[in-house]
Design goal:
Oligomer: single chain
GO molecular function, one term: monooxygenase activity
Helix content: 25-40%
Distance between the termini: 19 Å
Strand order of the largest sheet: 5-4-13-14-15-12-17-16
Structural class: alpha/beta
InterPro entries: FAD-bd, FAD-dep_Monooxygenase_BioMet, FAD/NAD-bd_sf
Protein name: BA75_00006T0
Family: Belongs to the paxM FAD-dependent monooxygenase family.
Keywords: FAD, Flavoprotein, Membrane, Monooxygenase, Oxidoreductase, Transmembrane, Transmembrane helix
Shape: globular
Largest sheet: 8 strands, mixed
Bound molecules: flavin-adenine dinucleotide
Strand content: 15-25%
């Protein structure tokens, strides 16, 4: 395919996005900035969903958001605290600091990692999605990819046809499963999460004013103020499958869940129980996962982004980062392959989807494969090295020895990755044709 494929057709490129989660919303913002496109997001819920607990924004996610939203406005809903956004890892019993993962010193202060609450973040992003772009109550059932485009079949709605489909339908993505046939499986841990008014913990002495994680061989307790007078708790507990099966995603476990956590963390740093005691209740998220896509595209017509492509299930607290990165790569790939000659002359822009999806996939797949590998390395290190320490002194020494700040992941520069891929293609593929 060449850039002239659409030369007899000046109709806008019709882009359909399935899913209006964090990643679908950012896709709506970014892709509607392209020339001569017609973008629609199809979301299965009837209205914006007000769910979710805290969310960490890494440097990489903020790098992408800076290009799409007012980054100074965004600061109003972010929390960084005493460690300038750095993640503090603490000894499970003593609370002693074992490591702090700080943003690199050269990072613009507005792009240093931060924490926030998912609902205000989602609302903030929605305020940048052009009016009327999201159609609610559209549940995609099946997609048919042909050489002329993509047909999307919805439950109880008329089908639509698009030139390009972006699947942002999350971890349980029907679109992905249609192609891979995968099943989502329990990962072995439940995330218990809550956000509540910070007022409730204000009288607890010595509670750190930072984002802290108390760690012990897999189980982790995270505390953090979140901005907007909210406080967040996330507990990762290796509950057996029969416990996890009692819950569905995002279910309030009420008093039972709170007491379950109090019991589980009873011999940990005493400050943990002080917070659990005043916390009103807790919501459960049994963590599930599926194989990550090795190729994020189908037939030059379909691109997977976010959890639909890589069901991270909380890994590295960076699922949103990976999704925002996908979106930026897709946006830049489409922008790169639009016929600039047409843009310069004011004529409708035309796209080379074959090349765009190639650039998109090449920009993302190597990085994502490396992230997935890291999951395996980390699990192995915990199992075979840290948890086999013979005493606490050895445990601390081993923990500190292998602790990695994962800067290469958190601060991944998607724009730089994209440019590298484009430059690798050589100049002949970038020829501009002037009529
Ligand atoms: C415990 C936990 C902690 C986490 N912490 C962090 C963190 O700190 N930082 C971070 O970056 N990430 C974190 N994540 C990951 C992050 O939440 C996800 O990676 C991110 O929300 C994925 O966004 P998404 O838009 O791809 O998917 P989703 O948010 O799942 O959105 C998918 C959307 O698609 C819609 N949809 C689904 N199916 C259909 C259909 N058939 N038709 C139409 N619409 C459909 C859904 O209704 C939904 O609105 C965490 C995850 C977990 C579980």
């Amino acid at each position: 395919m060449t850039i002239t494929e659409y030369s007899n057709n000046s109709k806008p490129l019709k882009i359909a996005i399935i899913g209006a989660g964090l990643v679908g919303a950012v896709a709506g913002i970014a892709l509607s900035k392209l020339s001569n496109v017609n973008v629609t997001i199809y979301e299965r819920s009837e209205k914006p969903r007000e769910v979710g607990a805290w969310i960490g924004l890494t440097e990489s996610s903020l790098q992408v958001l800076r290009k799409l939203v007012d980054i100074d406005e965004l600061q109003k809903i972010l929390f960084r605290g005493d460690q300038d956004g750095g993640y503090v890892k603490r000894h499970w019993k003593t609370g002693e600091i074992l490591a702090v993962n700080l943003s690199s010193t050269t990072t613009d202060r507005r792009l240093k990692q931060a924490r926030t609450h998912r609902v205000p973040l989602h609302n903030f992003l929605f305020s940048y999605v052009p009016e009327g772009l999201i159609k609610y109550g559209y549940s995609a059932n099946k997609v048919n990819v042909t050489k002329d485009g993509v047909d999307v079949i919805f439950e109880e709605k008329d089908p639509i046809h698009a030139d390009l489909l972006v699947a942002a339908d999350g971890i349980y993505s029907r679109t992905r499963r249609q192609f891979t046939g995968d099943t989502v499986q329990y990962k072995g841990a439940v995330a218990y999460r809550n956000v509540f008014p910070i007022e409730l913990i204000k009288d607890i002495p010595s509670l750190p004013n930072d984002t802290s994680a108390w760690v012990k061989d897999g189980d982790i307790m995270f505390f953090s103020p979140l901005g907007l007078d909210q406080y967040g708790v996330v507990a990762l507990v290796f509950d057996p499958e029969d416990v996890a099966k009692k819950f569905i995603w995002n279910e309030n476990t009420g008093e039972w869940g709170r007491e379950h956590l109090r019991k589980h963390f009873a011999d940990w740093d005493p400050i943990i129980d002080k917070v659990l005691k005043v916390m009103p209740d807790i919501t459960s998220f049994p963590l599930e996962t599926a194989p990550w896509l090795k190729d994020l595209t189908v037939g030059n017509r379909l691109a997977f982004v976010g959890d639909a492509a890589h069901p991270t299930s909380g890994a590295f607290g960076a699922g949103a980062q990976f999704g925002f990165g996908d979106v930026w790569a897709l946006y830049r790939s489409l922008q790169e392959t639009v016929s600039n000659a047409y843009v310069d002359t004011g004529l409708p822009a035309e796209y080379d989807l074959h090349r765009a999806l190639f650039l998109f996939n090449e920009t993302r797949r190597h990085f994502l494969a490396r992230v997935e590998k890291q999951l395996g390395y980390d699990a192995d290190t915990y199992k075979r090295y840290i948890s086999t320490a013979r005493n606490d002194k050895e445990w601390r020494a081993r923990f500190r020895q292998v602790e990695s700040p994962l800067e290469w992941m958190r601060e991944n520069n998607v724009e730089a990755d994209f440019q590298r891929v484009v430059d690798e293609q050589g100049p002949f593929l970038r020829t501009i044709y002037i009529d």
